[in-house]
């Protein structure tokens, strides 16, 4: 079952779908620069209501206001890899992991300090 769902053609399709959604959301709401960094398409200048916390990774896109430090982008690049691994399941698995970033396995794997959750 893991071969079908994780790191598979099916998960790759989910990653591409997520990236398409991220591009659409970014192009609609971004008022800032769009650039490729850390392997991510970074959309800046989104309104605060368009993403949670400091920003959000959707597929291969990082959507944010201005939260684009090197550490944050390294953190978000791990989320991109998670999208590639889990594809369509990523949003569901993330939701099940919980809203508390200190207990969410995806945030822990991406690095709590780099994500700005620890000082």
Which residues sit in consecutive blocks of at least 5 with pLDDT less than 50? none
Order of helices and strands: HHEEEEHHH
Helix share, percent: 40-55%
Structure summary, number of beta strands: 4
Q: What strand line-up does the widest sheet have?
A: 1-2-4-3
Number of helices: 5
> What is the chains' assembly state?
single chain
Taken together, the total number of domains comes to: 1
**What is the 3D shape?**
globular
Ends apart, CA distance between termini? 39 Å
Assess the beta-strand content as a share of residues. 5-15%
Main sheet record: 4 strands, mixed
Structural class: alpha+beta
Rg, nearest Å: 14 Å
Q: What is the arithmetic mean of pLDDT?
A: 95
Keywords: Membrane, Transmembrane, Transmembrane helix
Protein name: Fe-S oxidoreductase
Transmembrane segments: 12-30
Organism: Orlajensenia leifsoniae
Summarize the topology.
Layout: H1 2-5, H2 9-29, E1 34-37, E2 40-43, E3 55-58, E4 61-64, H3 70-86, H4 90-97, H5 105-110
Helix pairs in contact: 2-3
What does this molecule look like?
With 119 residues, the protein is an alpha+beta fold. It has one domain (2-110). Helix content is 47%, strand content 13%. It contains five helices and four strands. The chain has helices at residues 2-5, 9-29, 70-86, 90-97, 105-110; strands at residues 34-37, 40-43, 55-58, 61-64. A four-stranded mixed beta sheet has the order 1-2-4-3, with helices on both faces. A hairpin with a 2-residue loop joins strand 3 and strand 4 (61-64). The longest helix has 21 residues, at 9-29. It is globular and about 40 Å long. The mean pLDDT is 95. This is Fe-S oxidoreductase. The chain crosses the membrane at residues 12-30.
